[in-house]
């Protein structure tokens, strides 16, 4: 798996905000000038965005923004929330293993440390995106339901749906830290509900968590 960089974060948000339109060819030199960086960070970021499903190959060496609609992303996001809610319900009903709860709580502690200063930089955003992906992967795989995992994987192929693809559409970047801190508190609540064998609450918190992700994308997505 390729690793995102601050340039990846900036390009991802440009796609979310429509500053790079669906179908638009991406010229490295132009993007580098817009972002105030050299061409190399842009060249390194584009394959990461392709892996995330946000851009596609265009010609032998180029890329273009993947054509997608707001409705497609929102529908897939809500479906992912329903599926993960079902996974959390299964875990709460059956009882999560000691090892799974240990791994989930380790991620909670990692997130607590990452967000302790309540500041938002590209590095913190990248770190949280990785943590978020690992948390949701544990939630789904922990349910031990291959069909469920397959459906979630298909949802995650839609742009801006995968937990790793954290992006913000708000103009006020000061809101980022608040949104991520709230999302992380929801992680805590999901784990608490699973550990307490509360299936209704575990499922509800997963569905509510998806609403937080949708809101993070900005007013144009609501």
From TrEMBL:
Keywords: DNA-binding, Transcription, Transcription regulation. Residues 1-68 form the HTH gntR-type domain. Pfam families: FCD, GntR. Gene3D superfamilies: GntR ligand-binding domain-like, Winged helix-like DNA-binding domain superfamily/Winged helix DNA-binding domain. SUPFAM superfamilies: GntR ligand-binding domain-like, Winged helix' DNA-binding domain. CDD domains: WHTH_GntR. The keyword NAD does not apply. One of its GO terms (molecular function) is DNA-binding transcription factor activity. InterPro entries: GntR_C (IPR011711), TF_FadR/GntR_C (IPR008920), Tscrpt_reg_HTH_GntR (IPR000524), WH-like_DNA-bd_sf (IPR036388), WH_DNA-bd_sf (IPR036390). PANTHER family: HTH-TYPE TRANSCRIPTIONAL REGULATOR LGOR-RELATED, TRANSCRIPTIONAL REGULATOR, GNTR FAMILY. This is GntR family transcriptional regulator. It comes from Pandoraea terrigena.
């Amino acid at each position: 798996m390729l690793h995102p960089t601050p340039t990846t974060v900036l390009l991802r948000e440009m796609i979310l905000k429509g500053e790079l339109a669906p179908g638009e060819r991406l010229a490295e030199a132009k993007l580098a000038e817009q972002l105030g960086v050299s061409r190399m960070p842009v060249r390194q970021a584009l394959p990461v965005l392709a892996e995330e499903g946000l851009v596609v190959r265009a010609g032998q060496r180029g890329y273009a923004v993947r054509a997608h609609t707001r409705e497609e992303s929102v529908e897939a996001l809500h479906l992912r929330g329903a599926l993960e809610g079902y996974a959390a319900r299964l875990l709460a009903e059956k009882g999560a293993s000691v090892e799974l709860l240990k791994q989930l709580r380790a991620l909670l502690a990692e997130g607590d440390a990452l967000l302790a200063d309540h500041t938002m930089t590209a590095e913190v955003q990248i770190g949280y995106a990785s943590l978020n992906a690992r948390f949701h992967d544990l939630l789904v795989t922990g349910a031990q339901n291959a069909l469920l995992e397959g459906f979630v994987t298909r949802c995650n192929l839609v742009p801006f749906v995968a937990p790793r693809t954290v992006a913000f559409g708000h103009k006020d970047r000061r809101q980022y830290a608040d949104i991520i801190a709230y999302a992380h508190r929801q992680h805590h609540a999901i784990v608490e509900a699973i550990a307490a064998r509360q299936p209704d609450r575990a499922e509800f918190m997963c569905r509510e968590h998806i609403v937080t992700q949708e809101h993070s994308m900005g007013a144009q997505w609501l």
